[in-house]
Design a protein that fits this description.
The protein is mainly alpha-helical. The protein contains four helices and two strands.
Length: 117
């Protein structure tokens, strides 16, 4: 897709998709959310930021981040979310969105390093 596309992107849990292809499960069993962005100008930082927030919200839903109550489950949900967001950003293929994602991912890495000391 390019920045002029108005086709909604489908956010599907990256970990769940891997399970579909390795275990032969049905694709319909994979949690999915459609994210519309026809109302946004992805050529601007503000439009890209709004879409990034929508993508993260959808990834949180399909990866079950809010349902994670134990450390192992939380780690899997966070990994799923990171992979799912990265895949959605790549699918949109908009430079401003990629810049927002790279900046947010950098902030998260810096925060993890700072809190692990």
């Amino acid at each position: 897709m390019n920045i002029h596309s108005h086709t909604p992107i489908r956010i599907a849990a990256a970990v769940a998709l891997f399970a579909v292809f390795t275990a032969g499960a049905e694709a319909a069993d994979v949690p999915q959310v459609h994210v519309n962005y026809a109302d946004l100008n992805l050529g601007t930082a503000s439009g890209a930021t709004v879409l990034y927030q929508r993508i993260r919200g959808a990834a949180g839903l399909v990866c079950g981040v809010s349902d994670a109550r134990e450390l192992g489950q939380l780690a899997r949900a966070k990994a799923c979310m990171a992979n799912t967001v990265a895949a959605a950003v790549a699918a949109v293929n908009a430079p401003a969105l990629t810049s927002v994602h790279d900046a947010k991912a950098g902030e998260a890495r810096t925060l993890r390093l700072a809190t692990s000391r």
